[in-house]
Amino acid sequence: MQIQVVKSKIHRVSVTGADLNYIGSITIDEALMEAANIIEGEKVSIVNVNNGERLETYAIKGNRNSGDVTLNGPAARRVHKGDIIIIISYGILDFEEAKSFKPTLVFPNETNNTLT
């Protein structure tokens, strides 16, 4: 049997922008993506701490060390600049392997720089 588990999490990062006219996705500072072991195009879940909204999209690289976290396309309607969000990615593992798997957790500071 296989189960879905948390693979990576960027915990409590600040939204720096919302671009309704972009085709979709979330732009994430490349350094944050690397620290969290998230790759470009990977499906991610977004949880908005400010309003409880939850959505799924895919990650695209933002400029390294920019602190950029921008929701694009329709997702831009579900966040505001300054909202605090949690970005989560999942993996599928065999049940026994999942018991000992440890996700990558990133706790950025107030300027969205990585502190793991």
From TrEMBL:
Record has Acetylation as a keyword: no
Cited CDD domains: Asp_decarbox
CC terms in the record's Gene Ontology section: cytosol
PTM per Swiss-Prot/TrEMBL: Is synthesized initially as an inactive proenzyme, which is activated by self-cleavage at a specific serine bond to produce a beta-subunit with a hydroxyl group at its C-terminus and an alpha-subunit with a pyruvoyl group at its N-terminus.
Positions that bind substrate: 57, 73-75
A Pfam family: Asp_decarbox
InterPro entries xrefs: Asp_de-COase-like_dom_sf, Asp_decarbox
Record PTM Pyruvic acid (Ser), positions in chain: 25
Principal subcellular localisation of the protein: cytoplasm
Gene3D superfamilies: 2.40.40.20
Pathway: Cofactor biosynthesis; (R)-pantothenate biosynthesis; beta-alanine from L-aspartate: step 1/1
One Gene Ontology biological process: alanine biosynthetic process
Chemical reaction(s) catalysed: L-aspartate + H(+) = beta-alanine + CO2
Similarity field: Belongs to the PanD family.
Subunit structure: Heterooctamer of four alpha and four beta subunits.
Official protein name in the record: Aspartate 1-decarboxylase
Organism: Flavobacterium silvaticum
Gene behind this protein: panD
